[in-house]
Design a protein that fits this description.
This protein is an alpha/beta fold and about 240 residues long. The chain has helices spanning about 5-25, 45-50, 65-70, 90-95, 105-120, 145-155, 175-195, 215-220, 230; strands at about 35-40, 55-60, 80, 100-105, 125-130, 160-165, 205, 225. The longest helix is centred in the N-terminal third of the chain and has 23 residues, at about 5-25.
């Protein structure tokens, strides 16, 4: 085992311990929490090292990185989620190639996912991204407009809504983070209540990253997206 492989394995083991501790503090079952390795800018070799160390779900931010990794089977044995901003003209490249598209925030994007999923004869799982911090330059639907987008998604035949995702402001302190995560959890609960006979589909609440995933778990996250805490500082964007 190389030093790099050992470091990644140790990081993953430590993070899993922190996930377990946070879940237990909240009176939750640690098995309810999915660790997503956010592999932005990572090489195929590094992704394979993470999978060898126990990662079962990878998250990619950029279509131009996702596609080569799919081609060389970097993710073999794991699920892949798309977690970054998605342009409508890139939708056809990832529908059916990823298990969940986590960053859906408009009816226009939903329409394109529906169109491409229908062409492939599949039903694409998605999460709706909530702009919980109301940041002007960040993606996501505003909280007060979420219910309308949920209803729109419900009317699509080739899209399955699985839950919500959020990215709080980078400069939020612990008190603010807890409040924002708690607000997103309440929106998640409200969404489940609105789904009626589809309530069992709504089981994913994706929130928390390397610096705040323990807080997110304590406030209800079922998925955490962790990059630098697994892989270290990111290589420069290519």
């Amino acid at each position: 085992m190389s030093e790099r492989q050992r470091e990644i394995a140790q990081n993953i083991a430590r993070i899993q311990e922190e996930i377990t501790a946070a879940a237990l503090r909240a009176g939750r079952n640690p098995e309810e929490i999915t660790l997503i390795a956010a592999s932005k800018t990572q090489s195929s070799e590094t992704i394979r090292d993470a999978l060898a160390a126990g990662i079962r779900v990878c998250g990619e931010n950029r279509v131009q990185e996702l596609l080569p990794h799919l081609e060389d089977k970097s993710y073999e044995g794991a699920e892949v989620h798309f977690i970054g901003h998605l342009q409508t003209n890139k939708v056809r490249q990832i529908v059916g190639e990823v298990s969940i598209i986590q960053s859906v925030d408009s009816d226009r994007l939903l329409d394109e996912i529906e169109k491409q999923a229908e062409k492939r004869g599949i039903r694409q799982d998605i999460l709706l991204e909530v702009n919980i911090g109301r940041e002007e330059n960040k993606g996501g639907v505003l909280p007060e407009k979420l219910a309308d987008l949920v209803e729109y998604a419900r009317g699509l035949s080739h899209v399955r809504l699985r839950g919500l995702m959020c990215i709080p402001p980078a400069d939020a302190d612990e008190t603010q983070l807890r409040a924002l995560f708690a607000q997103t959890k309440q929106l998640f609960v409200d969404t489940r209540c609105k789904m009626g006979d589809n309530i069992s589909d709504i089981d994913c609440l994706s929130m928390g990253m390397s610096g705040d995933f323990s807080l997110a778990i304590e406030e209800g996250a079922t998925m955490v997206r962790v990059g630098t805490a697994i892989f270290g500082a990111r290589p420069p964007l290519r």
